[in-house]
């Protein structure tokens, strides 16, 4: 499978970071952190990202660059057919994530539309909360925007790696970063902003139970796009395994930085508007319009902000579709376009019940979770960590030194091996067991 290659190392880093940085940082991280009490959760999340996150991310990428194959092929080749189910689980999990990610991606499209129409420029915290609930509760609009979002993803990916992914991200990542910095700066001038910052940064470990620790680990997996084999697919398009350590660190650094900035962007607004930190998945959509209402050119800035969110979401959904299509092409010999179409059709169908679970189907629950919450929990807190556990164990104990990247200094080699053999498996395994019981 040599059909695709990155045109440059920067192109690769942009794509890998583009997959990681997205709604996870800007939409999910703030509400999950708020729900788990703030500072202590942030600390644990960062700890997981920089230890097992780096170890799994590097491992996944190396698998791809060593074999030049997608995740199932790579497991077949390096670990033996017995471990193929791990790769298959990663693919299934990608399909599930894509199904709900596309729904939230659709919200960003819907909010871009509302910003354009100017309907976010008035109303206080309570009104903005109601506006979000009305929007996602509607049986029609969020379904339509979900379909549109999935179609946009399809359009980019069927065009091929270099044209589709690299070009878009070259300008989008810096633009998003600058916009967030400006919003943080303004948010800090709001009345009561410091109360929000304290809530976000001051660790209070009494608020963080074992299920919070599991959430933090799941969020680390989700926000780095690891535990699915996406980085195996992207690694397969790399010319060699040289520099994989450095680029992995960059990805983790960027993703964590954006998450922390997103927290600093949203927590001060909570305190200033009285929007409930426990508002759940709507938090970003409820708070940010309140900021734009107070800014000069607020409506224009709101349009830019939500449009950048669309692009941030697209660069992540693109990686999901690229990954899934790579498998279908490799194993069934389909054309890229046909493979993309099949997967997109599945996701379009799968997202409908997810979208309805915020409205007409909110009462459909299992274990007290609705369809969206259930999918989110099963993917981030079960399947992705399980993949990471199997991957690090296999890398550390079965593949061993062969898996290490070329040109890595001896002390880094030892550290990475230690992470694969001991640290990552023990952490992931321990938290999975304790968090689930
Ligand atoms: N990491 C992405 C984000 O933060 C979400 C994602 C998860 C993308 C898994 C691909 C795979 O938005
Ligand atoms: Na992204």
Automatic annotation (TrEMBL):
It is a multi-pass membrane protein. Its main location: membrane. It comes from the Bacteria. It is found in: Membrane. It holds the Pfam family SNF. Keywords: Membrane, Symport, Transmembrane, Transmembrane helix, Transport. InterPro entries: Na/ntran_symport, SNS_sf, YocR/YhdH-like. GO terms for molecular function: symporter activity. PROSITE patterns: NA_NEUROTRAN_SYMP_1 (PS00610), NA_NEUROTRAN_SYMP_3 (PS50267). GO terms for cellular component: membrane. CDD domains: SLC6sbd_Tyt1-Like (cd10336). The chain crosses the membrane at residues 12-29, 41-63, 83-104, 140-157, 169-190, 210-237, 249-275, 295-321, 342-362, 382-400, 412-433. The keyword Transmembrane applies. Belongs to the sodium:neurotransmitter symporter (SNF) (TC 2.A.22) family. This is Transporter.
């Amino acid at each position: 499978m040599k059909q695709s290659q990155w045109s440059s190392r920067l192109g690769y880093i942009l794509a890998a970071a583009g997959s990681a940085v997205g709604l996870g940082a800007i939409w999910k991280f703030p509400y999950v952190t708020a729900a788990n009490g703030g500072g202590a959760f942030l600390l644990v999340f960062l700890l997981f990202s920089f230890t097992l996150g780096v170890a799994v991310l590097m491992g996944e990428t190396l698998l791809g660059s060593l074999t030049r194959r997608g995740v199932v092929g790579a497991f077949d080749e390096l670990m033996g057919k017995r471990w193929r189910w791990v790769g298959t689980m990663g693919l299934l999990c990608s399909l599930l994530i894509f199904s709900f990610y596309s729904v939230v991606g659709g919200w960003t499209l819907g909010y871009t539309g509302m910003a354009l129409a100017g309907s976010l420029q008035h109303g206080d915290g309570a009104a903005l909360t109601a506006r979000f609930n009305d929007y996602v509760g509607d049986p029609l609009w969020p379904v339509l925007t979900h379909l549109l979002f999935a179609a946009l993803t399809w359009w980019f990916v069927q065009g091929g790696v270099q044209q589709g992914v690299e070009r878009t991200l070259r300008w989008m990542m810096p633009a998003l970063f600058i916009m967030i910095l400006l919003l943080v700066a303004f948010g800090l001038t709001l009345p009561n902003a410091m109360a929000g910052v304290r809530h976000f940064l001051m660790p209070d470990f009494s608020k963080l139970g074992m299920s919070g620790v599991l959430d933090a680990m799941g969020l680390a997996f989700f926000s780095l796009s690891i535990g699915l084999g996406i980085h195996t697919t992207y690694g397969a398009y790399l010319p060699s395994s040289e520099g994989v350590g450095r680029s992995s660190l960059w990805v983790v650094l960027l993703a964590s930085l954006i998450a922390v900035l997103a927290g600093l962007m949203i927590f001060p607004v909570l305190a200033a508007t009285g929007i409930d930190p426990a508002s759940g998945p709507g938090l970003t959509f409820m708070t940010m319009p309140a900021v734009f209402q107070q800014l000069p050119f607020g409506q224009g800035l709101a349009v830019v902000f939500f449009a950048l969110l669309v692009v941030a979401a697209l660069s992540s959904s693109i990686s999901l579709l690229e990954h899934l299509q790579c498998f279908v092409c490799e194993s069934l010999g389909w054309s890229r376009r046909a493979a993309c179409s099949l997967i997109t059709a599945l996701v379009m169908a799968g997202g409908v019940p997810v979208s309805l679970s915020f409205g007409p189907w909110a009462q459909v629950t299992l274990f007290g979770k609705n369809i969206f919450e259930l999918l989110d929990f099963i993917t981030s807190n079960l399947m992705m960590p399980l993949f990471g556990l199997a991957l690090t164990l296999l890398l550390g104990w079965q593949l061993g030194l062969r898996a290490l990247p070329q040109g890595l200094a001896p002390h880094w080699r030892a550290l990475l091996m230690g992470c694969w053999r001991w640290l990552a498996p023990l952490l992931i395994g321990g938290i999975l067991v304790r968090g689930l019981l």
